[in-house]
Amino acid sequence: MVIVEKSNGKLRICLDPKDLNKQVKREHYQLPTADELTSELAGAQYFSVLDANSGFWQIPLDDQSSDLCCFNTPFGRYKFLRLPFGLHSAPEVFHKTMCQIMDGIPGCQVYIDDILVCGKTKEEHDKRLRLVFERAREHNLRLNKSKCKLGVREVKYVGHILSKNGMRIDNAKVQAIVEMPSPNSKKELERFLGIIQYLSKFIPDLSTEAAQLRMLLRKDVEWQWDSTHEKAYKKLKQLATEAPVLQFYDPKKPITLSVDSSQNGLGAVLLQGGLPVAYASKTLTPTQENYAQIEKEMLSITFGCERFHQYLYGRSFVVESDHKPLETIMRKPLAKAPPRIQRMILKVQKYDLKVVYKPGKELFIADALSRASLPDTVVGNDFEQDLEAQIHALISNLPISEKKQKQMEKCTSEDEVLQCLKETVLKGWPLNKSEVPLSIREYWDFREEIHVANNLLFKSDRLIVPKKCRLEMLHKIHSSHLGISKCKQRARDVLFWPGMSSQIEDYVSRCSVCLQNKGANQKEPLEPHPTPERPWQRLGTDLFHMRDKTFLLVVDYYSKFVEISQLRETTSKEVINKLKEIFSRHGIPDVLVSDNGPQYRVSCSKSSPPSGNSLI
After folding, report:
1. Taking a C-beta distance cutoff of 8 angstroms, is the pair 87, 15 a contact?
2. Which residue ranges form the domains of the chain, and what is each CATH number?
3. pTM above the 0.85 mark?
4. For residue 277, what pLDDT is reported?
């Protein structure tokens, strides 16, 4: 038996059921979070809070359960006839019962023994409150009159102050933080940062000194509290006292996720109508600090989506970012993105999001959060380990030996152009090409695909070869004395540098071995095409360019009738659509002859040899 003094001075008799809890199968029933409880309060003006009197004791036990809840006293043995405090499943059992009792009442939220009733008008509130009282009477649920607050404009519920303006921190919690003494150990500092993290959704501008406090928690850092840490500690206390009011989340209104990243942290803010619903920030790990800027920006989107999952999942929403390349890369095929960004995109594919560019000066809240972040204890650890494992797997499976990889790393570090490119990738590309250094402007068109891994530069999954190693790579590419096309195909699987294709052509065309053993090209005799028996039986087709425009040409072999259509783009899909338009007017031919161009290489077409379309 354990005696606990309640806040009102009365005593509460509790069990010490450590052994019993090990044997009893726990009944799991998920308790709602504060965010879930307040997600349906948009527009509420009047509030009431009700408290179940000695809540657990209102749940009767059957005889078998009562026998298990027996305890010794100096006056003999006693057993509980009602649900006792101390059983690990007692909160879930009671909360489940309360939810069943109040089920179906609009504007009514339940958290264990606390009941919240709200309404947009006094009449709506009173009607809902009357329904709650009727349910309580029907199920013989007794309420604690001294703890009930009825029809008020501001009320305390689950540790927050609720009003028509939204939600803010309970003053009692703020006062407790203010009165906390300076920590004397890592454990005490962890406790303080844990409380601050709990309140982080209210604080849009956490101090950058938080990173200094976090440094003290590292295993390899000796505990030494000095004036710098004390200043940061007091600043965090001050921010807790100045926390703003957050508006209630309204599921009927559009929602925006504003994100940003800095050198040391990530920031995210959930907005509705331009007003904040919740804030979040996260300090980057040492590994994440080495990410390229575009990877940090993508990581901030992943962090924001997962932190605010309960608000965003199943809804269409806009993500605001000040990194313009992300807006483009999210519209491209997944294979076009660098491997690390591919993994992050896969993480957010379950969300219906649209990334929109917004200048950094307009994302001041998310920007402040990213630059003044706290360590995040909920999202990121498992994801980050998984992400790094896959990145390292990619590097370890490069089609080069370990010795060659080290040589590439050394040559890359000595290549001034690639070092400039690496620095630009890590810091982030400028918005305009004119601001890019001249030496790396040739990389501008595929800047979104370039990333850094293990001191090497990659374009998607292709290694960017430093200038010093390119001649050697050309020799290896042509070591089997393959033709130009085969050599290009071989190189494009794993390697990249600007002008690689033309250099391969030049290298192969000057190869003495190939020149010596190359046979003269014999001209193939022209094969006459069969003469059709009727119009539109056999057609010839090709593409031609005139005045910067591309056209589709179709000629009837029988009558020499010509059809010409302008193309918006030179793709197979566009050519097929235009051919369908022509066929819808004149009918479908028996044979369609082309020169086997790339636009005609589809499974539904039959092409002739390159020299076979002699009519066009």
Report:
1. yes
2. 2-164 (3.30.70.270), 171-241 (3.30.70), 256-390 (3.30.420.10), 400-517 (1.10.340.70), 538-600 (3.30.420.10)
3. no
4. 80
